[in-house]
Structure formats: structure tokens, C-alpha cells
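Per-record layout

source: Pustulibacterium marinum
name: Methyltransferase domain-containing protein
length: 261
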Amino acid sequence: MFAERKDYMPLKRKATPLHNETKDHWYSNWFNTDFYHLLYKGHDYQEARVFMDKITSYLNLPEEGSILDVACGRGRHSIYLNSLGYNVTGIDISEKSIQYAKKYENPTLKFQLHDMCEIFPKQFDAVFNLFTSFGYFEEDKDNLNALKAFKANLNKTGFGVIDFMNVNWVINNLVPNETKTVEGIDFHIQKYFKDNYIYKEIIFEFEGKPQHFTERVKAMNLKDFERLFEKADIYLLDIFGDYKLSKFDSENSERLIMIFK
């Protein structure tokens, strides 16, 4: 549910070393593999485009307005936003994802390797952080620094958007075990809630070698975000519960979509 990132390209026939969380953050390691994009290639692209259409219309962004897509992955949403006429900059911590996305650059679409916790040297009409690309950090100060950076990258009339999972709904609907077979690879997935984090263990074999990756996202609810917003001097304007921008319900909504300044 929470690794809801971007595009897919064919899997290279080369095994990836076993993940070592003592050496690297799980997200910088896992997001840099072809396996990640293979596992999540089945996402509903049409639903994502409907969301982009609705949110840009709701925000009433200026014609050819500027958007910063934070944690853009391989640029799927940046590319679509650019096709709507916006000037888009996509940033991500994954070197391989940015390298892939750069193939689609044009004068109004740029991609850059950048840490979301650091202020980007430009301001925008909108800053988007989409599809649960938040809450990965071990320390809360990093989440706060990311929010401060989002705010700093907004111009005086700009709006921010964070699209996060609704943790109450996710926990209540957690599927503990499942197997997804994609292009001959059986991904065995275990999900659980522990110490205020939602975990997903992804176990499989590739070319006879075992692979094991872990996703971990902090189970942040609306009150958690409100506390961080106050510290970051962010003003929460509106809240929605799905990609059609329906009213948020803390138990039944699948998403927590927050509009802020």
C-alpha cells in the first residue's frame, strides 16, 4: 500500500545483492532496484491521472505554473503534469530513477537528484508529495525538515499537497501474507504493524539467489501531521479522503490528502 511510486522498465537479467539495512536506508536501496519497479508496475495509472486532473483544477494553478514533484521516482506523474502544460521539476533520492526519468526531459520538464529534507534552490506554485512518499525516516526531525523544505519551496501564492495513506484504514485492512507473481518471479509479501511503523517484507528468489527487502513507513495519522505542521509553521487548508477529493473519514477513507500553505 505504501510503496506507491512510479514507473517500470524491463528487468535486467542481473541479480541484486541481498539488502543490508545496517549499511543503507531501506528506501535508497530498494527504490534503486529493478525489482521494486517490477513488483509495482501494475498500479492504476488512470486513477493517478484522474487525481492529477482533479488536484490541479482544485488548486487553480496558473497557466504554465511551476510544480515541484518531491520523490518523483522515474517521473511518471511529473511527465503527466507536464503534458497538462505545467513547468515541472521532479526530484528524488534514487540515482537510477532520476537517470531513467531524464530521458523524458524537455525545456519545461527537468529531473534532479535531491534529498527531500533539503530546500531546493527555487520556489514553485505548487509542491507535490504523492502516493505515500513520506514517513520513511528513522528520526522525526527528518520528517520535520522535509516539511520545512516543502514550505520553503512554495512561492507566496503557492500550495502544497501531501498524499499519504490513511493509517487507520490500512491497519484495519492489512493482509498479513500474499504472493504476487510477476514475470515469473514469486514475490512473497508479509505485512505487519509494529512500534508505530507499517512493515512490508518482500522475499523472493532471482536466478537461484534469495532476495529480501523491507519497506517501513511510519504510521502517521492526521494528528501526527498537524503536530509537525505546527512546528514547521505550515497552515493546513483542506483534507480529502480519496483521489476524487471526497470528504476525509478517519476510519473509512483510503487516503489522507492534505492541502497546505
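summary: Helices lie at 26-30, 34-39, 45-59, 76-83, 95-101, 140-152, 167-172, 222-231. The radius of gyration is 18 Å.
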